[in-house]
């Protein structure tokens, strides 16, 4: 599974807004991936309606991020 990610070593931005292919994804673990701009990441979370767990340990976030949660 992770072999596909090796070809993305130069990826600088991943915008998932509007993407509907991961609608059943429940957990996303992004620890130690050196994410800096958390606001862009959080904006993309709307395309993951079943997400219950977002694990972001050991990233280097800067700035402020605002989130809004909506009940299902």
Automatic annotation (TrEMBL):
Family matches, as Pfam families: LRR_1 (PF00560), LRR_2 (PF07723)
Name the record gives this protein: Uncharacterized protein
Organism whose genome encodes this protein: Citrus limon
